[in-house]
Design goal:
The protein is mostly beta strands. It has 9 helices and 26 strands. The strands form 3 sheets. It has a 22-stranded antiparallel barrel. A two-stranded antiparallel ribbon has the order 8-16. The protein has a two-stranded antiparallel ribbon with strand order 15-17. The relative contact order is 0.12.
Length: 714
């Protein structure tokens, strides 16, 4: 919807569309991909329409249901086994373009749960994106103010990718939706809030480009309220500053990057004097180099080149607790009437005495450095790609050598976390360990492809409060205001059960969870190319035939030197666009892949993933999608939950099947119906109290899924 005068009349748009259509039809005899050309035309028209000045409203709206029925032999007798999420959800995108170079963007979300519609008060609108963006100075300077997604290099500022080889669309769309709930996407850019400016000069003399970029972001926030604590607090205010610069000429690029993440001490000290705080400061600097043959040797049938990066990191762990106190004493003379009773007589006397008052003032703090670490990391990636008739080739390699003390916080954290109870979270199990249920009741496939989003009234169960105003994070009695706050509050908050997060791990946080990071996603490089203490190589090849058949080959071998552990991973995938291959008039895509990874010591983990998918057009607006994934994770040395061998995870077996039709109701509107079946079996061993012998046990959970939604884009 455009609330301003349309600068491009409908007649002009129609003529423009017809002109492009005539060109595309005329060239159809030499190029069969007419659909691709038409899509390109529509994209151009959309870009023209987007550039219109003024105020616009767009977005998506969805109404749907997700029902999950759980069955398990370990389910408690009185436990709920069915969970239904029925909802209406709208994401509104409001943009204002004061000029053709800048845009203000606000995205808000409205959500209503059908099952509690009559219990809720007025639903809140949550704003999840606020930014002012522009491309100014004759399109040389790009800037972002507010929310932004920024990426530098794989060793400085980056999000490691979660790639499933030949992932069917029925799964990929669900993963995108789960990410979008957290304001995330599938790119390698990190979600930040702050200021970013990026300059490109374009051609200057012999140089093809000179670039410079600066980024500043506040990435964590200390809890500021004395009585009320929400779940997104941290011990300190944490900030990040980053910059890069470089130049390119004749296909050669040289540049440098710097990223600093640190805790701000002053805000923490002012919040709670005398409490022990631990700070982490992380500094990473890198140099990048690259060469691409396209600029110098553009006439060759192949394009080749190399990219590389060498980085140095420094990490400092500090205890902030020691303080110097100034003590002063003050004296004052006080008179007071004393009334005493002696022998039944009342006597009034005047008494004078001195009062001593002791005052202590914090004069200074001392930082005690507990640990320092610094190290280097290096990687080089050669590549070659080209076309030979109908055959396309894209081959790349990698060699990396990261020191054991290298740490880059802003490049080492994935968006996918796992280990979250998503569906049927209220179900109760008998005779099962709480940590086992917390980490493994929802498998990797459920964590990756499903999410639950609710609006609930704030209550005592989801609102924390403490009585101590000096230290809100310590154990203490309940606040005196807890119940009065709950009376007639009519406050609704947005809650997620979601395995994705935009937060970056500190090193101490990662150390606490490193053993439980999901090994089914790139086990050797759990933190991408910034994974500490990794040396090895990998090969990646993608081959296409007539843009209809795609073959993927993957292989990698890495070493973890500190514990003498080695990893091997490999995979193969095949995608066939049958419609393109045989000139069929309906879409028909078939995808299959197999991936595996293993390590030869430590936990001796072995993972394998089998994927198959189908995307087919049926008739008119009707289409069908289907997909299956079978995932196995083995811990031959056992994953110890308590570091005392009392409970060892030995094997996890999962399967997810999804299938259903899709109906295009109108332009931008689609009906999707899916049915699914999901299994999760965890084999573990415990020590019997009576005999002291180890025995094998099993947690097996099956879920039947029914999903349907109507989505509209506008």
């Amino acid at each position: 919807m455009n609330l301003n005068k349309d600068k491009f009349p409908m007649a002009f748009r129609t003529a423009l569309f017809l002109a492009f259509s005539i060109v595309s039809v005329a060239s159809a005899a030499t190029d069969s991909s007419v659909v691709v050309r038409q899509r390109g035309i529509l994209d151009k028209l959309d870009s023209i329409n987007t550039a219109i000045l003024g105020f616009r409203i767009g977005g998506t709206a969805k109404a749907g249901v997700l029902a999950s029925t759980l069955s398990s032999d370990q389910l408690a007798d009185q436990s709920p086994s069915r969970e239904t999420q029925a909802y209406t959800d709208a994401n509104l995108v409001l943009t204002a373009r004061p000029s053709s170079e800048t845009e203000a963007r606000v995205e808000v979300r409205l959500h209503k749960d059908w099952q509690s519609g009559y219990e809720e008060s007025v639903n809140p609108v949550i704003g999840h994106w606020f930014s002012y963006d522009g491309l100014i100075l004759d399109k040389h300077l790009l800037f972002n103010l507010g929310y932004m997604r920024v990426g530098y290099t794989p060793l400085t500022l980056y999000v490691p990718e979660d790639v499933v080889l030949q992932e069917p669309e029925i799964f990929a769309s669900r993963r995108r939706d789960a990410l979008a709930m957290r304001n995330l996407d599938t790119s390698t850019n990190r979600l930040l809030q702050g200021l970013n400016a990026e300059y490109h000069s374009g051609k200057v003399g012999l140089l093809s480009d000179i670039y410079a970029q600066g980024t500043a972001s506040r990435i964590r926030n200390i809890a500021k309220k004395a009585d009320q604590v929400f779940f997104d607090f941290d011990w300190s205010d944490r900030y990040m500053f980053a910059a890069n610069a470089g130049a390119s000429a004749y296909g050669v690029t040289l540049g440098g990057n710097f990223v600093s993440s640190f805790d701000r001490e002053l805000s923490t000290r002012s919040r709670s004097a005398g409490t022990n705080y631990y700070y982490e400061d992380n500094y990473v600097g890198s140099g990048v180099f690259g060469f691409d043959s396209k600029e110098l040797l553009g006439d060759l049938p192949v394009q080749f080149g190399v990219n590389g990066e060498v980085a140095y990191s420094r990490w400092v762990y500090t205890l902030d607790s020691v303080q110097v106190v100034d003590t002063t004493y003050s004296y004052s003379l006080t008179q007071q009437n004393l009334i005493t009773t002696a022998d039944g007589l009342n006597l009034d006397t005047i008494s004078e005495y001195y009062v001593t008052k002791k005052s202590q003032v914090v004069r200074d703090w001392y930082d005690t450095v507990l640990d320092r670490r610094s190290d280097f990391a290096f990687n080089i990636q050669p590549y070659v790609k080209g076309s030979f008739g109908k055959i396309g080739v894209n081959i790349s390699g990698l060699y990396m050598n990261n020191g054991k003390n290298f740490w880059s916080e802003q490049a080492a954290s994935r968006n996918y976390r796992g280990n979250t109870s998503v569906l049927n979270a209220a179900s109760l199990f008998e005779g099962q360990d709480s940590s086992l249920l917390s980490l493994f009741r929802s498998g990797s496939l459920e964590n990756m492809y499903f999410a639950v989003y609710n609006t609930n009234v704030l209550q005592q169960q989801n609102l924390m409060s403490k009585n101590e105003s000096s230290d809100i994070l310590s154990v203490g009695s309940e606040s005196n205001y807890t119940y009065s706050r709950l009376y007639n509050n009519y406050k609704i908050a947005h809650f997620y059960r979601n395995a994705y997060s935009a937060a970056a791990y500190k090193l101490s946080e990662f150390a606490a969870v490193s053993e439980f990071i999901d090994p089914s996603v790139n086990m050797p490089l759990a933190m991408g190319l910034a994974t500490p203490d990794r040396q090895g190589f990998s090969f990646k090849g993608d081959f296409t035939f007539d843009d209809a058949v795609e073959l993927n080959v993957r292989f990698g071998h890495y070493k973890w030197s500190e514990i003498d552990d080695q990893f091997t991973q490999y995979g193969v995938g095949l995608g066939v666009d049958v419609a393109q291959l045989i000139a069929f008039d309906k879409p028909l895509m078939i995808q299959v892949s197999y991936e595996a990874a293993s390590e030869d010591s430590y936990l001796k983990r072995n993972t394998s993933r089998i994927v198959a998918g189908l995307n087919a057009g049926i008739w008119g607006p009707f289409a069908a999608q289907a997909g299956v994934q079978i995932l196995t994770k083995k811990y031959d040395n056992g994953l110890d939950l308590y570091d005392d061998s009392s409970l060892l995870i030995n094997k996890v077996e999962e399967m997810l099947i999804l299938a259903g039709p899709q109906v295009k109701l109108a332009p931008g509107a689609c009906l999707s119906i899916e049915g699914g079946y999901m299994t999760n079996k965890v084999t573990y061993s415990t020590i019997a109290t009576e005999t002291g012998l180890r025995g094998s046990q099993e947690l097996s959970i099956d879920k039947i899924l029914i999903m349907a939604d109507i989505s509209v884009s506008f």
